[in-house]
Amino acid sequence: MTKAAGKTAGARADAAKKTLRVTLVKSVAGTKSGHRATVLGLGLKRLNSSRVLEDTPAIRGMIHKVAYLVRVG
Predict the structure, then answer these.
(1) Which end of the chain has fewer CB atoms at under 10 Å, N or C?
(2) Domains of the chain
(3) What pTM does this model have?
């Protein structure tokens, strides 16, 4: 396999990765500090902010922990 062929195969693998759009729909005020840290770890800073994240078991676990604060779509 040549270098050029390896680069295009890697690009196809990146394009095939699944993603999730996560939106913060409820305020983190009054929640546990661990839940606030998890929301920040997802990259959500203010209400109605969204991020497109790679669909990995770690991200799914974080979403599950703060499911009452976020919407996935």
Answers:
(1) N
(2) 18-72 (3.30.1390.20)
(3) 0.77
The strand order across the sheet containing 70-72 reads 50-54, 19-24, 70-72
The two three-digit tokens of residue 10, written as one number:
């890697």
Burial class (CB in 10 A: 0-12, 13-18, 19+), 52: exposed
